Amino acid sequence: MKPFQYRAPTLLSEALSLLASAGQRARALAGGTDLLVQMRRGLISADLIVDVKKVFELNRLDFDPSDGLTIGAAVPLCRICESPEVARHYPGLVDALSIIGSVAVRSRATVGGNLCNAAPSADSIPALIVHGAICTVASREGTRQVPVARFCTGPGQTVLGPGELLVSVRVPPPRPRAGARYLRFTPRHEMDIAVVGVAAWLELSEGLTTIANARIALGAVAPTPLLAVEAGASLVGRTPSAAAFAEAAALAQRVAAPISDVRGTAAQRRHLVGILTRRALEGALQRARGAEPDGRQG
Questions:
Q1: What are phi and psi of 165, to 5 degrees?
Q2: Contact between residue 91 and residue 287 where contact means Cβ atoms under 8 Å apart
Q3: Confidence (pTM)
Q4: 65 shares its domain with 115
Q5: Is the residue at 295 inside a domain?
Q6: What are 242-262's pLDDT values in tens digits?
Q7: Residue 293 forms part of a structural domain
């Protein structure tokens, strides 16, 4: 690992000034579970590491029924998963965050780091996408809002420019008669990355008879986590059924663009998209109806 300067500011303004001073040669450190590994391997180099764990705005974990959930970019995954309010109102997020790495990893890793690492297989991102989550990005020039669905631009690439910092992610308030589910397929339950991941979110009509809104997002089957727009739209106005879910799954398969690698073939991944989409929709439906789906992951 090449030598670098290390700073740990306590103020957001100080963190932003430090990042701006070094430009593209600066890196923000939240949990470090990806960044430090990549630096040791020589995949990333930096002249300045700005540790943001002491910055108040990046450590917020707040829920308000009107405003929704705010997750600071440096909040550890374990803190989110252990929050009773998150578990009650956003179980679809807990599905995803609770299976990232091991307990030790989740005590350090953060949603902000998972987003900024921008791995196509990231578990948190599809779940955040279907919940309609919005990123707050700051620089010395001000702040801007970016939907999570547009935050990643390629493997390891994001919309962040030099001197910009992901401050937090806001998840909209939970909707009545709505539910979400995230599922992934991996050869092992822990310490592995998704071969395919699928998140689904459904909102039912007042009488629980039809689907008022739906979103489906895919992971590990494209250069970035992917919102399957047509697949979700195909369910709106329809009665929840195996046939409707199968049609949505077929549309999700169509938009997937998987590759073959040592962990699975493109054909296998496309097949898994169909299976996991149907199962995720079934789990989201159960939660929208006030029940809890079974615990299987894929």
A1: -135, 130
A2: yes
A3: 0.95
A4: yes
A5: no
A6: 999 999 999 999 999 999 998
A7: no
